[in-house]
Amino acid sequence: MKVSNLITGITVVLILLGYVVYFYFDQIQVAPTFKITINNEQIKLMGEEGKFGVVKKSWTDKRFLITNEKEMYNWYFWGEPDELTDKELIIVATKKKTGEKLQPFASSVHLNNGNESTAYSRIELVFPTKGIWKLDVFVDGNLWGTIDVKVRNVLGYRRNSTFLTPPSIKPSL
């Protein structure tokens, strides 16, 4: 076996290993996860078990916690119904690395009849940059809990100053 073939083989293995590590770490979420049953279906949540959680989509879902991507997220809460029902939900997002704070996200909390949690809410979140974001969750002005989440860019897309855009396709001549 030639030395050049060995070097080429090692290079290919290292490149593949680099991609595996990149994709693995890109999928990691910081908040702990747990499962609940909603309408006879197992749902994965990120948050504080027995207190609150946001629905965690699949690890490979490219639409979950993406920069500049508005999306509705389902949140579930546990506690006394009178502490939660018809109360205001505020999520304050702070980027861990820079301290940048976003305008608070707001919604209301509703009684969750017939499911495992006490209450639920749907709230639209959007993050301007990738990185680790701390989410402080307030119900009726009281801190209900805090989680850290990892926001990322969509893989395979380039980001300009405002929107995520697909890479340009140049026609072959």
List the helices and strands and how they pair.
Elements: H1 3-27, E1 33-38, E2 41-48, E3 52-55, E4 71-77, H2 81-84, E5 88-95, E6 105-108, E7 110-111, E8 119-125, E9 131-139, E10 142-151, E11 158-159, E12 164-165
Antiparallel strand pairs: 1-2, 2-3, 3-4, 4-8, 5-6, 5-9, 7-8, 9-10, 11-12
Gist of the model:
This protein is α+β, with helices and mostly antiparallel strands. The protein has a 6-stranded antiparallel beta sheet with strand order 1-2-3-4-8-7, with no helix packed on it.
What descriptors fit this protein?
single chain, 173 residues, Immunoglobulin-like, 2 domains, six-stranded antiparallel sheet, 40% strand, elongated, disordered C terminus
Tell me the count of domains: 2
Please count the beta strands (DSSP E, at least 2 residues each): 12
CATH topology-level name of the largest domain: Immunoglobulin-like
Q: State which percent range the strand residues make up.
A: 35-45%
CATH class of the largest domain: Mainly Beta
Give the helix proportion (percent range): 10-25%
Structural class, from secondary structure content? alpha+beta
| Structural Rg | 20 Å
Q: Look at the structure and name the CATH superfamily of the largest domain.
A: Macroglobulin (MG2) domain
Q: Order of strands across the biggest sheet?
A: 1-2-3-4-8-7
Compute the separation of the termini in Å. Answer: 40 Å
Biggest β-sheet strands, sense, barrel: 6 strands, antiparallel
* Number of discrete helical segments: 2
Order of helices and strands: HEEEEHEEEEEEEE
Estimate the global geometry from the Cα principal axes: elongated
List low-confidence stretches. 22-27, 156-173
Which CATH-level-2 architecture of the largest domain?
Sandwich
Mean pLDDT: 77
